[in-house]
Amino acid sequence: MKNGFKILAVLLVIFSVYAFTTETKSKTIKIVIDAGHGGTDHGAVHKSHLEKDIVSQISSKINALNKNTDVEIYFTRTDDSMLTLEKRAEIINKIKPDLFLSLHVNNNKNDDTFGIESYVAKESLYSEESLAFAADLTSKLSKATSLNLRGIKKAPFYILKNTNCPGLVLELGFLSNESDRKYLTDNANQEVIAKTILDFICQIR
After folding, report:
1. For the chain, which end, N or C, has fewer CB atoms within 10 Å of the first or last residue's CB respectively?
2. Per CATH, which fold does 27-202 belong to?
3. What is the pTM of this model?
């Protein structure tokens, strides 16, 4: 009888260790950060300020700040390479992340237009999940920064329609607006944006 209890105790320990290991592994999150534009594709431009540089700087800061071993962050580009939308979607689909964020900076002929906005695609099978992620992230960004929240919009962007996971295009402000431009080109403010995005990523389960 005692041997039976011993065997049962050993089995319970083995099961607990296995369950804990499985649970720990399941917590690993895969994220892709897509810094928009690159190379000869500058994106939005205002004098010496280029969209491709701003989003690349923020992307690099996210990478440098991440110390969470349960969060694997991949990047479609880590230099000034120009990637087609097809190539970006291909990279994302190969990684199969839990979420991808395509970082951009907006532009408008009306320089009074300002603030953060995000886009999801209704054509995506992950539209509802993407919408929930977008609402959470933009809310956190509006609280952590001085950037105005313009809301979530739906658009049939290629990268949103052709990726097999939740994803959103995040427009971090308007380079054409003086206030947004000053905020987005400041190193300390970029650090705040990067940290807020990373904190959001780390709480995804």
Report:
1. N
2. Aminopeptidase (3.40.630)
3. 0.86
